[in-house]
Write a structure and sequence with these properties.
The complex is a heterodimer. Chain A is α+β, with helices and mostly antiparallel strands. Chain A is built from five helices and nine strands, in the order βαββαβββαβααββ. In chain A, strands 7-4-5-9-8 form a five-stranded antiparallel β-sheet. Chain A has a two-stranded antiparallel ribbon with strand order 1-6. A two-stranded antiparallel ribbon of chain A has the order 2-3. In chain A, β2 and β3 form a beta hairpin. In chain A, α1 runs parallel beside α3. The radius of gyration of chain A is 17 Å and the shape is globular. Chain A starts with a strand and ends with a strand. Chain B is of the alpha+beta class. Chain B is built from 23 helices and four strands. In chain B, β2 and β3 form a beta hairpin. In chain B, α16 crosses α18. Classes of the chains: A alpha+beta, B alpha+beta. The interface between A and B is large, with 39 and 40 residues.
Chain lengths: ~210, ~450
């Protein structure tokens, strides 16, 4: 079948769609598993043919969706290097960072008919790994909040500021203290490699959480 | 039994659980190691015992499958459930007779909900779909997949005995509109399909039977039109009715259309004549359905979904005059509300008036929001709905949340409560103002009965 290059924006959009859907599910699941929000707001829904927990709180959902719609154009152009979900304690010091490292191969080939179901299987495995990650992580202190950071390659953010994807949803350059964590332990969770997408998920965890 | 279990398996399980941080269910273990499920269960049990005896290293968590006889509401039932270890004794105590208890899974993480248990088996089972009971202890000699030829032969056999009943519904079509469509559903459907004598339509009849709502909608068409026209009619009728149906029904209706298109090739002469008439009839049906939707929106707010559908069909059955009467009724009432806000009759009107306040909004909006509301109800049980009509939808979400929040119940229970909380919330919300700023009403609503949304943040 066809071999597409990065210039073929349609395919880039497909990959960005898949990835943003996945990130939405993953963020909700992280919030559920790490107990950032009370479990009462979560509801079982189906994704990739398995049950996942998604929140029902409209503002939270809207926030996550807005965040990801801003990230999507970066992924389409392959400018997003990492998407990080940072969990911070009451003093806004990060205690955990879930890092999704994303890379897309320059030459995408949709040679296999079962490509998408294969990708679905891999994403399912990542979801499963997030569900059991609390075995390897210490419990968080109460009263945590979360935020999403995006590390871009080169100077993509300058273009982003010019084109505000969503009004009233500005992105700002993150503070040093949110980006870097001192005394961090690195815990790898899952790596997935497929024809269209490579993703690595690991957690940076603060050694002393309280 | 002991021969199967040397210590190698213990190391295997140890590697899966501790090194790879996997959830090891007995089903996954049996498929991975190629052993009978009972052996797998024993292996897990031994592993757990050994690790607990050592009491070193990381703590392990286990889930158990308990099955037994359970007395509920005066009737006994056989209950099978997967429980966490800490709840095991409690569940066993509740059962009358505990028939079996065995280890379901072993993992390092303490699972908050059961979703990962399903995910962990998913791929392994999918790969072994054809021989999924290779290692299973459940056997049934008669359970073999049927070849498709036998499938059709079976359906043909089902149709003839029902033909006798067709005569009855046909007589009734001409006499009076019935008020019990449900009693005639199966006969009416079979009548429609029997008239075709096409095997494909019989296949689709199977799908129709599985959905009771489909039956009610199709029966109505059979009553208004002769049975021979009913088949193409039902498909078209199915389309406007799809507004209020979920995806499952859509599929079955579409499958009917597929069945019919195939049948039409074999019985093309029959179709060509009724088709112009049926097209005209379709438009009538659609207009009837849309007016029925409008009418029902006013009356069926607190009912569950099924009666709603039957109501609309009932309204269709009545002659148009009655329908017009119903539509007109609310208008004089609503105008009364506007003219006389403080007069003495207001208290008596208050209960009907809140219902009709919504009617003041443009009817199309009402219809769409009602359609949405119907979807929302179902959706609320298992779906979010953020991108629709702002606040109304938001309230739904809020209500279900706040209930489960205040009840502090675990996830599955909160979902069961949703359906009841929905009805209450509908009633209560309508007693609020006539506002467009429904968000405000939701806030006040919540402060009167539940801890508000701020409760979320305070809890943190």
């Amino acid at each position: 079948m066809a071999t597409l290059t990065r210039q073929d924006l349609n395919f880039g959009q497909v990959v960005a769609d898949i990835l943003c859907e996945f990130l939405e599910v993953a963020i909700h699941l992280i919030l559920y598993v790490r107990e950032v929000y009370p479990s009462g707001i979560f509801q079982k829904r189906k994704k990739y043919n398995v049950p996942v927990q998604m929140s029902c709180h409209p503002e939270l959902n809207q926030y996550i969706q807005d965040t990801l719609s801003c990230v999507k154009p970066l992924i389409e152009k392959n400018e997003a290097e990492k998407v990080v979900v940072v969990i911070m304690d009451k003093e806004h010091h990060p205690v955990e960072r879930f890092v999704f490292e994303i890379s897309q191969p320059p030459l995408l080939s949709i040679s296999s008919e079962t490509l998408l179901s294969h990708v679905e299987q891999l994403l399912r495995a990542v979801i499963l790994k997030i569900s059991v990650c609390d075995a390897v992580l210490d419990t968080n202190p109460p009263g945590c909040t979360f935020t999403v950071l995006v590390h871009t390659r080169e100077a993509a953010t300058r273009n982003m500021e010019k084109v505000q994807v969503i009004k009233d949803f500005p992105w700002i350059v993150a503070d040093e203290q949110e980006v870097y964590m001192e005394e961090a332990k690195l815990i790898p969770l899952k790596t997935m490699t497929s024809d269209i997408l490579k993703m690595q998920l690991y957690v940076e965890e603060k050694t002393q959480k309280t | 039994m002991d021969m199967d279990m040397d210590d190698l398996y213990l190391d295997n399980i140890d590697e899966f659980v501790n090194d790879q941080n996997k959830i090891v269910t007995y089903k996954w273990l049996s498929l991975t190691l190629g052993v009978h499920v009972n052996t797998a269960k024993q292996m897990l049990y031994h592993y757990l015992e050994q690790k607990r005896r050592e009491s070193s290293g990381t703590p392990l968590h286990a889930t158990y499958l308990v099955s037994g006889k359970f007395v509920e509401n005066g009737g006994t039932c056989h209950k099978v459930s997967v429980v966490r270890e800490d709840k095991l004794e409690a569940v066993k105590a509740k059962m009358d007779v505990t028939i079996s208890v065995h280890v379901y899974s072993v993992q390092r993480a303490e699972l908050k909900d059961s979703s990962p248990l399903y995910s962990t088996d998913y791929d392994a089972v999918k790969e072994n779909l054809k021989n999924s009971n290779k290692y299973s202890a459940i056997r049934c000699a008669a359970a073999v997949p049927m070849p498709s030829v036998e499938l059709r032969a079976q359906e043909v056999a089902v149709v003839p005995p029902v033909e006798k009943e067709i005569h009855k519904p046909r007589l009734n079509e001409n006499t009076s509109a019935t008020s019990k469509p449900s009693a005639k559903q199966p006969a009416g459907i079979m009548g429609m399909f029997a008239s075709k004598n096409a095997s494909k339509s019989q296949e689709s009849s199977k799908e129709v039977k599985t959905e009771q709502k489909d039956n009610s909608s199709l029966v109505e068409t059979s009553k208004t039109k002769p049975a021979s026209k009913a088949n193409p009619m039902s498909n078209f009728f199915g389309k406007p009715a799809q507004k209020k149906v979920d995806e499952k029904r859509n599929k079955s209706i579409k499958e009917e259309t597929d069945g019919d298109s195939a049948a039409s090739s074999t019985a093309s002469v029959k179709l060509s004549q009724p088709s112009p008439k049926s097209e005209f009839a379709i438009k009538e049906e659609q207009s009837k359905v849309s007016s029925a939707l409008k009418v029902e929106s006013k009356d069926t707010r607190n009912k569950s979904k099924r009666p709603e559908v039957v109501d609309s069909d009932d309204e269709k059955m009545e002659n148009q005059q009655k329908k017009r009467r119903r539509i007109k009724k609310p208008q004089p009432d609503s105008s009364d509300d506007e003219v006389v806000p403080d007069s003495p009759p207001v208290p008596t009107k208050q209960t009907p008036s809140p219902k009709k306040q919504v009617k003041r909004e443009p009817v199309s909006h009402q219809e769409s929001s009602d359609v949405k509301r119907r979807k929302r109800r179902r959706v609320l049980k298992s779906h979010t709905f953020v991108d629709e009509d702002g606040s109304f939808v938001t309230e739904k979400g809020y209500v279900s949340e706040s209930y489960s929040e205040s009840e502090e119940e675990p996830e599955p229970k909160s979902q069961a409560k949703d359906s009841s909380s929905l009805k209450q919330s509908f009633g209560k919300r309508e007693e609020e103002k006539k506002e467009k700023s429904q968000k405000k009403t939701s806030a006040t609503n919540k402060s009167t009965k539940q801890p508000s949304i701020m409760g979320f943040f305070q809890k943190k």
